[in-house]
Amino acid sequence: MAERYLEELTKIHDAVKQDLLGGRINLLLGWEKGHYWWQSRPLFAENEQDLERLTWDSFCAVNLSRYLLEELKDYQKIGVLVKGCDSRSFNRLLQDNMVARQRVVLYGLPCPGMLDYELLTATAEAELESIAEQNGIVVLRSAAGEKTVEREQLLLYKCRDCRYPDPVVYDQLLLAPRGEKEAPERYKSVTKLEEMPADERYTYWEKELSRCLRCYACRQACPYCSCRECFVEQDKPRWQGRAYQGSENFLFHLVRAYHGAGRCIDCGECQRACPVNIPLQELNRKLIKDINELYGQFEAGLNADLEPPLLTYKPDDPAAFSEK
Amino acid sequence: MVKKLIAVDKLPAFWSHLAGQGKLFLPVKAGLTVLFKEWTEGDEVTLDAPTSAVSPKDIFFPREETYMRYQCRGQTTELSAGEELGPVTAFGVHPCDLKAIEMLDRVYINQDPPDELYQSRREKTTVVALGCTAPDPFCFCGVMGVDPLSAPGADVMAHLDLQRGNLILEAQTPKGVMLLKGAGSLLAEPNGKTFTPAPVKTADFGMKLEGLSESLKERFDDPVWDKLFRSCLGCGVCTYVCPTCYCFDVEDYGHEMAGERFRCWDSCMYGHFTQMAGGHNPRPSRKERVRQRFLHKLQYYPETYGELACVGCGRCLRSCPVNLDIVQAIKALGGEQDVQR
């Protein structure tokens, strides 16, 4: 583990330990190591012993805010470690009235962006033994030797165009803020898709969505998919057929994307969770781009007091679809 | 039995030949992952890769399969069967995945009556297994009793000789002999030199499996289950990428005049899997569902068929978005070697 992370982990550990033992929180949602050094999985810490497993490194990609939906049923007060995107997820849940603010303590962790193991091994071109990180550089160590790569090039897709590495809502900010970032490439692939003729675009999505297993990992990982009952499971009437036909896959992904219009915080958990690498962020980003163009710049999850454009009405709202 | 050889750079011609005989499924590169899919000209076939993202079980147990179609014309209703099945070649199936298919055979074929659709696909398919050359860190077939270099149940056993750039094919059944002979001059005679595949090392994650299944009989209410499920998101990734999961649902599609009855994959991780018509759900939360999935693999299947329903392919380790996998479950349930603390 890089020295910086060790230092940061000590800070995080001290802060949450005090609160957990002092009774400010009854449960801490954090991360612990998985089988390997490049896996960090959710940790549910109730006591000091659990906290010994707490970790913080370049692989803490899992968004923990979503676990509040279930855990708040059993715990009175929960502490959550939140990166920038996780904090905006929390705002999303707050706006949907799915969580109670006063029952959650948010520990903000400004985030350097999380690394993509698949990309690391693909770049190392050999089985990876370890990595070392320093000043925006990652050294990949494998049997083939050492390879030095810019950290930015090894980020998870969801982290590459992140604009808000700093948590936007928190009770305690535990690490030094990193500041807002520019994301000039955020809509690059969407623009490319927009420029395609409709038929070509349809073929593109037909191919991408044909891989969909309908495992619903995208939905389950998503902070805007917080409905108690999803339209997929409703059977009176039955909206979503169970068949694995292209049309059913389209129905699922398009309806889901539209449900997220103006609500998607672009955290990219959907795409990270997808086992067959469907570029789901392109669908969501298309809608974010459209909303921005139609209703003015809006970044979901940034401010829980600002209603998403499609949940409000203004007399001068554009209504191109109803004008002949 | 017949043994043949083909230079790796001649393989595309072999693929075209096989695709001319019927459907050909093989591992194809899709971005950073590998998928088992029906071959089309120009596909980037990758034989020296880890297991495919999704298991090849869908060659025998498709994600969706039609039982019958109906069509009403005036006063009569016409019924017709689903797809007419032709010959299939499944090429490059890893030994772990074939072992898993043999586990499905017990469930679908070794029954009275057998499942006709599955049985028919199995009979019409020639399986070419491929010795593993590139296990990834998720692979743990060794500890599950699978030899990554041999698949006795395959029609043809293939090995990549990366050094000489050859694929060596050895028939193991009459079907395999037919496949090799049918390829005629595309395949060369082995040049006498013997080839010994390089040993393959896979992880064991410090697991200890002896006695695990038996111990689970009394542990339906073990406190382990109260914790293990918590990180589960409730999606179905693990069941859909898993080569030994075989549950399906039966549905109708269409309207009163025309439509079909089909079956499709289902997952015990979904709430509606056990949802009763009256509203009762015997597995109301993720806890019961996670327990069901792991007990099925580790206790129920072994109880009926004598071995764990896991072949160590590593897909659940690779695909679970929150790293809740069967290795974690086994270790949490005590299937761990003694470690010095």
Key terms:
heterodimer; A: alpha/beta; 3-stranded antiparallel sheet; B: alpha/beta; 2 domains; 7-stranded mixed sheet; 10 helices; 26% helix; globular
Per-chain topology:
The complex is a heterodimer of chains A (324) and B (341).
Chain A: H1 3-22, E1 27-33, E2 40-45, H2 48-51, E3 54-55, H3 68-71, E4 78-82, H4 84-95, E5 104-108, H5 117-124, E6 128-134, E7 137-142, E8 145-150, H6 157-160, E9 172-173, H7 188-195, H8 198-210, H9 217-221, H10 246-259, H11 269-273, H12 280-295
Parallel strand pairs in A: 1-4, 4-5, 5-9
Antiparallel strand pairs in A: 1-2, 1-3, 6-7, 7-8
Helix pairs in contact in A: 8-10, 10-12
Chain B: E1 3-7, H1 11-21, E2 23-30, E3 33-38, E4 64-73, E5 76-81, E6 88-93, H2 95-108, H3 116-124, E7 125-130, E8 156-161, E9 166-171, H4 174-182, H5 212-216, H6 224-228, H7 237-241, E10 248-254, E11 258-265, H8 286-305, H9 315-319, H10 326-332
Parallel strand pairs in B: 2-6, 6-7, 7-8
Antiparallel strand pairs in B: 1-9, 2-3, 4-5, 4-11, 8-9, 10-11
In short:
Chain A has 324 residues and is of the alpha/beta class. Chain A has helices at 3-22, 48-51, 68-71, 84-95, 117-124, 157-160, 188-195, 198-210, 217-221, 246-259, 269-273, 280-295; strands spanning 27-33, 40-45, 54-55, 78-82, 104-108, 128-134, 137-142, 145-150, 172-173.
Helix content of chain A: 25-40%
* Shape assignment of chain A: globular
Number of domains of chain B: 2
Sheet with most strands of chain B: 7 strands, mixed
Count the domains of chain A. 3
Strand order of the largest sheet of chain B: 1-9-8-7-6-2-3
For the terminal residues of chain A, how far apart are their CA atoms?
Answer: 61 Å
What is the C-alpha radius of gyration of chain B, as a whole number of Å?
A: 22 Å
Radius of gyration of chain A: 21 Å
Task: Please write the string of helix (H) and strand (E) elements of chain B.
Answer: EHEEEEEHHEEEHHHHEEHHH
**Low-confidence blocks of residues of chain B:** none
Class by SSE composition of chain B: alpha/beta
Report the strand count of chain A: 9
Estimated share of beta-strand residues of chain A: 5-15%
Described by its quaternary structure, the protein is: heterodimer
Percent helix of chain B: 25-40%
Biggest sheet features of chain A: 6 strands, mixed
Number of strands of chain B: 11
Mean pLDDT of chain A: 94
- Chain pair forming the biggest interface: A-B, 38 and 43 residues
Structural class of chain A: alpha/beta
